[in-house]
Amino acid sequence: MVEPELAWAELGDAAELAEDYIRHCLRHATDADDCRADLELLSELNGVDCIGDIEKCTAQDRWAHVSYTEAVELLTQSGALLINGPPRWGEELGTEHERFLADSVFSGAPVVVTDYPAAGKPFYMRRNGDGRTAAAFDVIFPRIAELAGGGQREEREDELLANIRADGMDEQQYAWYTELRRWGTVPHAGFGLGFDRLVQFTAGVSNIRDAVSFPRTPGSALC
User: Which is the most buried residue in 12, 14, 56, 175, by most CB within 10 A?
Assistant: First the structure.
């Protein structure tokens, strides 16, 4: 995982960094002569237009942004024959939903989904003012589904304690964490990116096991 955390940052700052980082990696893969030759070979081997897919994702300086609520509406209104049907508000977006958003609704381009239901997010994720959603985001990629996810952290001690109590957690077990807020903190946000998934998309492979840097197999020391 690639996991940056930014001080003095909000949701939009983390989402923008995630976009810039992914776009930089993809552009490097197509701009470097040795990488481009590899991508041409991988395209032939895997039956995927690696370079074309990458260039489609890097053509725009900013990808589409939709809220979770808008994403649910788009999936519901699409009329697509989704195996699990469209999600109801409050349910997680499944891999099928995410792929349909990127592959079909946004025509093979990435999309950033923001403001997920607060009930599905951990206690340290900052709640939005509507009382229903949290300042969280996912970067959804064609063929891959979720590539990165993160959000803004809760820096207010009273709100953090309220979330812990609402989730039925032991407040004393997290006293060390809440005290970090008591003695001063700043708004901060971050994300985690599955680098193997980024390699999977770039190389055009269908199985992530073919993209991992350090293969994990039963009985191996890496398991």
Answer: 14
